[in-house]
């Protein structure tokens, strides 16, 4: 997804940007592969009926070609029926196999180095880097090694326009650095709200306050003691995932195995830290296994988050950081102490917007949510091949529509212009990334969850974005949206 600048700004002026559209071009004439297969089955049945003599055979075969036409063109929630079939079939398979329920076996011991997480995340392994003491999460099936860093930064919306534009440009250089590496599988930016335990206010008062027994000092201390735990705070983390398949040669040179992969990942970690500091972001160090365990436990059990923060030694084991129970339904997820729902940002702003356009979503108060931006960098050669392929497909589709007399609509023209803009950005030295935005909303009850989801959907509308509930895949979506493990849906 690329951004386009239309006007050259003056010094100190904030530059609006434009996002690329989500491509809906399809394989042929706007139809996807599944639509073409379904349409081919219906067309072959209808043509065969005519060759066989038609007549009463048309009535006998009508259920086949009428159903094929309905599956191909009738939409449900903005998606053709045929594209819902894989999701529905996978849901039925998981339902019959009992995969929608997870209960931890608290008596059976877990293998050393594994994570107590549900579903396919049970295959994840933990590794502590001896040089940086950072906790690294290894996915043996996807061949990735992931590390997490907490980042602190000033409030972006409170900065002046010139400073905002400078920080946006600096963040663009950070993303370009990730793209040029060629060894990074995923970069995840996770911004979440947490119930504040009041320790930050208490520490500030202990450092800067003057408890001299006066009325003002006593009132301020009492206010901190009462109102501190009732507030909320924002935490931002960056997760970096190394592609062990792409980095196989460097890993063998570094000694092979997990140790070699950790050595290669350390190089990427140092590069990212240097890029973040040049962008005026303050990395707080790479998170240890204990800190990652607290994040995982807080995501599944939000009611215990403030207690874990207040008592720094609790919940520091990844072997016990997962949930005790998980129940997945079609549109929600129930874990230890909360109900969750995950929304997908299906459309980014189509018009020009300023960099702080997500503030209605990120600054919404009274709602416990996690916003995850999953960035998949593309190497320059791979991005160039992909752009050339898209250009050829657009031109061939345009020629095919001209032959059959179909009119070119504005959305198809806009998609082609987006491809040309991506090619121009790539030629200018910028990186190409694929973005996925996910919002996980949590609440203690179903009624509060529905109200929170409605509020987030309204905030997304104010941010010029479109969101959709990821039905039938809430468990996988929650692991990608609320956990800093660079998971994908």
Explain the overall architecture.
- The protein is α+β, with helices and mostly antiparallel strands.
- It has 15 helices and 15 strands.
- α4 packs antiparallel against α8 (257-278) and α12 (380-404) runs antiparallel to α13 (410-427).
- The two termini are 18 Å apart.
- 30% of the residues are buried.
- Mean pLDDT is 83; it is low at 1-11.
- Keywords: Membrane, Transmembrane, Transmembrane helix.
- It comes from Citricoccus muralis.
- The chain crosses the membrane at residues 27-51, 57-76.
- This is PrgI family protein.
* Number of beta-strand segments: 15
Low-confidence stretches: 1-11
Which range best describes the helical content: under 10%, 10-25%, 25-40%, 40-55%, 55-70% or over 70%? 40-55%
> How far apart are the first and last residues' alpha carbons, in Å?
18 Å
Protein name: PrgI family protein
Keywords: Membrane, Transmembrane, Transmembrane helix
Organism: Citricoccus muralis
What's the short story on this structure?
The chain has 15 helices and 15 strands. The chain is an alpha+beta fold and 489 residues long.
Helices and strands, with pairings:
Elements: H1 33-51, H2 56-73, E1 75-76, E2 79-80, H3 81-96, E3 101-103, E4 125-128, E5 135-139, E6 144-152, H4 161-181, E7 184-195, H5 199-208, H6 215-227, E8 232-243, H7 248-253, H8 257-278, E9 282-286, H9 289-300, H10 305-310, E10 325-328, E11 333-334, E12 339-347, H11 359-362, E13 368-378, H12 380-404, H13 410-427, E14 432-443, H14 446-462, E15 466-469, H15 474-482
Antiparallel strand pairs: 1-2, 3-10, 4-5, 5-6, 6-8, 6-9, 7-8, 7-13, 10-11, 11-12, 12-14, 12-15, 13-14
Helix pairs in contact: 1-2, 4-8, 12-13
InterPro entries: SCO6880-like
Protein name: PrgI family protein
Transmembrane segments: 27-51, 57-76
């Amino acid at each position: 997804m690329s951004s386009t600048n239309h006007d050259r700004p003056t010094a100190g002026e904030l530059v609006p940007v434009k996002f690329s559209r989500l491509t809906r071009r399809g394989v042929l004439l706007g139809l996807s592969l599944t639509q073409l297969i379904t349409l081919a089955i219906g067309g072959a049945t209808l043509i065969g009926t005519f060759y066989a003599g038609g007549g009463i055979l048309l009535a006998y075969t009508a259920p086949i070609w009428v159903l094929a036409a309905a599956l191909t063109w009738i939409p449900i929630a903005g998606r053709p029926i045929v594209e819902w079939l894989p999701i529905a079939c996978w849901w039925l398979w998981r339902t019959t196999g009992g995969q929608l329920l997870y209960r931890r076996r608290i008596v059976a011991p877990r293998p050393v180095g594994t994570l107590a997480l549900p579903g396919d995340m049970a295959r994840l392994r933990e590794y502590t880097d001896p040089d940086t003491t950072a906790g690294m999460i290894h996915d043996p099936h996807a061949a990735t090694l992931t590390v997490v860093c907490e980042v602190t930064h000033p409030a972006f919306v409170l900065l002046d326009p010139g400073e905002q534009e400078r920080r946006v440009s600096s963040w663009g250089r950070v993303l370009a650095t990730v793209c040029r590496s060629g060894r990074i599988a995923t970069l995840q930016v996770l911004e979440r709200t947490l119930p504040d335990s009041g320790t930050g206010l208490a520490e500030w008062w202990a450092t800067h306050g003057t408890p001299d027994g006066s009325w003002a000092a006593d009132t301020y201390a009492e206010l901190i003691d009462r109102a501190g735990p009732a507030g909320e705070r924002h935490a931002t983390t960056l997760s970096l995932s190394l592609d062990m398949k792409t980095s196989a040669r460097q890993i063998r040179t570094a000694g092979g195995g997990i140790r070699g992969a950790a050595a290669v990942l350390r190089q990427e970690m140092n590069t990212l830290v240097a890029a973040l500091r040049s962008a005026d972001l303050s990395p707080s160090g790479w998170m240890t296994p204990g800190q990652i365990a607290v994040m995982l436990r807080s995501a599944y059990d939000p009611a215990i988050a403030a207690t874990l923060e207040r008592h720094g030694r609790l919940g520091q084991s990844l072997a016990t950081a997962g949930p005790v129970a998980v129940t997945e339904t079609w549109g929600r997820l129930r874990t230890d102490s909360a109900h969750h729902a995950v929304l997908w940002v299906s459309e980014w702003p189509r018009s020009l917007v300023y960099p702080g356009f997500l503030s209605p979503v990120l600054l919404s108060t009274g709602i416990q949510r996690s916003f995850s931006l999953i960035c998949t960098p593309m190497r320059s050669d791979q991005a160039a091949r992909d752009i050339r392929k898209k250009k050829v497909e657009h031109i061939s589709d345009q020629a095919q529509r001209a032959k059959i007399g179909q009119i070119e609509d504005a959305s198809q023209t806009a998609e082609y212009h987006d491809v040309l803009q991506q090619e121009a950005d790539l030629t200018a030295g910028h990186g190409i990334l694929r973005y996925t935005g996910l919002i996980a909303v949590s609440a203690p009850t179903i009624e509060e969850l529905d109200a929170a989801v409605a509020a987030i959907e309204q905030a997304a509308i104010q941010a010029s974005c479109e969101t959709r509930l990821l039905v039938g895949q809430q468990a996988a979506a929650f692991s990608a949206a609320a956990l800093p493990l660079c998971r994908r849906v």
